[in-house]
């Protein structure tokens, strides 16, 4: 079963955000999905917008490109700080991350 089927999100837009207060700065997310995550000079991870710009506002979100959804989900699962949240855009329900049901 694919990650998309597992979460029931085959056709749903997803977004991801990072809670910098919990970020340990070890960079696992940037290794898994450099298209979405990057460490800044402060040593913390941030999501990147479609133009590769770091989104540093608290709670900033970016869309998860479906081709790399598995990489983003692996980032959330492996993150030692448990600070990566993936949620459905339509209703804001977290499907991967520490608050996922």
Automatic annotation (TrEMBL):
PANTHER family named in the record: FERREDOXIN
The protein's name: Ferredoxin
Free-text function comment from the UniProt entry: Ferredoxins are iron-sulfur proteins that transfer electrons in a wide variety of metabolic reactions.
Transmembrane segments: none
Lineage: Bacteria, Bacillati, Actinomycetota, Actinomycetes, Kitasatosporales
Gene3D superfamilies to which the protein is assigned, alphabetical: 3.30.70.20
Cofactor requirement: [4Fe-4S] cluster
Keyword Protein biosynthesis appears in the UniProt entry: no
Keyword Iron found: yes
UniProt KW keywords: 4Fe-4S, Electron transport, Iron, Iron-sulfur, Metal-binding, Transport
Cited SUPFAM superfamilies: 4Fe-4S ferredoxins
